Amino acid sequence: MSLSIPDVTVAEPAFHSSECPKVSQVLSRIGDKWSVLVIMILSRGTRRFSDLKRDIGGVSQRMLTMCLRGLERDGLVKRTVYPVVPPRVEYELTAMGQSLCEPVLALGNWALDHIAEINTAQMAYDSKDDAD
Amino acid sequence: MSLSIPDVTVAEPAFHSSECPKVSQVLSRIGDKWSVLVIMILSRGTRRFSDLKRDIGGVSQRMLTMCLRGLERDGLVKRTVYPVVPPRVEYELTAMGQSLCEPVLALGNWALDHIAEINTAQMAYDSKDDAD
Q: What residues of B are in contact with residue A77 (Cβ under 8 Å)?
């Protein structure tokens, strides 16, 4: 089962619409911005909670905790608690989490490459609204 | 400026943390599940609103309208209104939207390939919680 790169001259759908609920079920978890950023950072190796919070910037303690629990529940991130005082908690990608790195980094790269173009489009859109 | 596929033995970061706010700014828009599904469907060609709503399934009129406006504002989708009665409105990807297809389809394919493994991980996580 695979989604193909589109060929608009071909009548076959790039994917079956019946797959939408399943795809959206997964994308709703991996598609949120904090998850993508956490995966990008953990792709470099094991990190503590405080490392992740500092590197991401602008994420609340609560949001990052929820994000990490969701990723752990999905089997993408492994959480290890070391029985020291105070407890040391480390996060790392599982094998499945590692396999997600390539498409996530591709999307992240696309985002970096197109920030300026998107900003220009938004300004054009917003000024058009003003003129109406 | 580019994010690289990670090499955990190398000390250099896969991306600079200073880029996080910019990346998350873009990902917060393209990373939501409806946007991804709309882009996947429009990768096949022009669609009307009702086509999109039917193919996606489970999306409200309001959510799809907001999603399409956001994509239009970002310069990813072009909206064309034909002056007929009733007005016909069609949506298609712009050149920038087309360039987003490849990373989005890669992510969609990953999602399709790993749905079962994620479901298994979730059941294991949830049953562990019950035992605690």
A: none
Host domain of residue B127: 18-131
pLDDT single digits (tens) A32-82: 678 888 988 899 899 999 999 998 888 899 999 999 999 999 999 999 999
Q: Exposed e or buried b for every residue in B70-107, given b needs 16+ CB within 10 A?
A: bbbbbbbbbeeeeeeeeeeeebebbebbbebbbbbbbb
- Residue B101 belongs to a domain: yes
Q: What CATH number does the domain containing A93 carry?
A: 1.10.10.10
Cβ distance of A103 and B110 shorter than 8 Å: yes
- Does A1 fall in a domain? no
Name the phi and psi angles at B121, rounded to 5. -60, -40
Task: Look up the ipTM and state it.
Answer: 0.73
A75:B122 CB<8 A:
yes
CA distance B65 to chain A (A): 16
- Cβ distance B109 to A73 less than 8 Å, yes or no, reads no
B68 within a domain of the structure (yes/no): yes
CA B77 to chain A, closest CA, distance in angstroms equals 11
Contacts of B112 in chain A (CB under 8 A): 1-3, 15, 19, 22-23, 26
Q: Which residue has the higher pLDDT, B103 or B15?
A: B103
Which residue in B30, B70, B37 sits closest to B54, CA to CA? Answer: B37
Nearest to B37 among A24, A102, A108 (CB): A24
pLDDT recorded at residue B108: 78
Structurally, chain A folds into a number of domains equal to: 1
In a domain, B24, yes or no: yes
- On average, the pLDDT of chain B sits at 80
- Residue A1's pLDDT is 47
Query: Within 10 A of B60 (CB to CB), how many other CB atoms are there?
Result: 10
Q: pTM for the whole thing?
A: 0.68
